[in-house]
Amino acid sequence: MPQDYSDHLAFWFHTVTNVFGIFFNSLLTYLIITNTPKPLKPYGVLLLNVSLSDLLACMFAYMSMTRIITTGEAVCFFYHGPCTWFGGSFCFYCYAFMLHWFAHNLFILFMSFIYRYYVLKYPAPSRTTLWIICILVYLPSFSQFSSFCFSLGPESKARENLRKYHPQYDLDAYVITGNEKLLEPLTLYTTLYMCAPVAPMYLMMLYCRHKVYTSLNTVQSHLSENTKKTHRQLMKLVLIRCFHLDRVSSLMRRRVRDKPSVTYFTDNGSHLSETIPA
């Protein structure tokens, strides 16, 4: 639970944004399931995956309310959410579960761009086919979640590192866990899996967007104006969902490590893209 003014601000920021995200992504999920027009049913599979991953990310972001602090070669996690009622290990697993939905969301968004281009050239795949593809795309993210769970280090070591590098904190007031080394294989795998694909993925999304608009303006002249308008609107929707603040925050976190306001912003601000329903 919050201990000082920074903790209180972060607690309420987390509460407001994540409750907002839970409510609206729940509503969006319901609307996708019940009101998707028949021609868009296959695409609804991808939209449903995005809304569900956002919903679960918001739920577990609220549960953990994590603040990340680096300590030399290690990284420590402070928790302020309801998970603290069940102990540090439970909080760490909640945080790990949240992270893997961020990663899965990126790959599903990439699939959405590919799908919009694919259906301009070929018949739309069936919903069953898309569900199978989504499950296959999810498996690497699940492996990242599983491996990160095994990277949890001893709480005593995390507190020792914090006392050494950040003696200003009253550690007895917090639930804390940590990874012993950032370059440990299990931790490094999570970092690389979440960060390395970002730039190439976004570049490929922009390329797919360009190809879709080119096709709509030239090759696909047989499409009606309403159909073209629908394609453009869906592309704008997917493009908006691509602006993930968690990618920016991960870079900021490596620049400024000690100021509570900055570490809270970079960690809490990362959830904003998930609170905005697709």
UniProtKB/TrEMBL annotation:
It is a multi-pass membrane protein. Coiled coil: none annotated. GO terms for cellular component: membrane. Its main location: membrane. InterPro entries: 7TM_GPCR_serpentine_rcpt_Srd, Nematode_rcpt-like_delta. It is found in: Membrane. SUPFAM superfamilies: Family A G protein-coupled receptor-like. Keywords: Membrane, Transmembrane, Transmembrane helix. Pfam families: 7TM_GPCR_Srd (PF10317). The chain crosses the membrane at residues 12-33, 45-65, 85-118, 130-153, 186-207. Belongs to the nematode receptor-like protein srd family. This is G-protein coupled receptors family 1 profile domain-containing protein.
